[in-house]
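Lab notebook, bench 4. Still working through the backlog of constructs that have no structural model yet. Next entry is a single chain of 159 residues. Request: give me the structure tokens for it.
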Amino acid sequence: MVVRRSAGLLVFRTSGGRLEVLVAHMGGPYWAARDAGAWTVPKGEYEDDETALAAARREFTEELGLPVPDGEPVPLGEARQAGGKVVTAWAVEGDLDPALVVPGTFTMEWPRGSGVTRTFPEVDRVAWCAPEEAAERLVAGQRVFVERLAEHLRGRGAP
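Model written out:
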């Protein structure tokens, strides 16, 4: 069985001495009415001919329509999601205005079985969240990345 792999970037900042992370609400009709567990680290799948970090940078730009912040990538390791996909993530310190996001799009048949193809945004909104709020919003398999980032920052004496 081939393992599907994704890579992503968890952008973070400190505001008022508190850590905040940037998370994205997944677009499309399946996620539209959901909040808890319907947010993600900007990420996407990649093939063997691309490094995970290169894919994470590419996917960030494709999903949000913004350049990757200039911060140094901090490896956050891998996590297996419920569906079996393995996600590799890095944290990057930076700041961006969620109002400037211009998401990429995808097409799918909707409603299913209708024969009608529609276009949806890959993400329909992004937000800065405290780690506790991000833990409630993120899909369960990605919450570990916020924990690992907080642990890394505590190790360097940051909030």
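Notes after review: The two ends are 41 Å apart (CA to CA). The chain has a mean pLDDT of 94. Flag for follow-up if needed.
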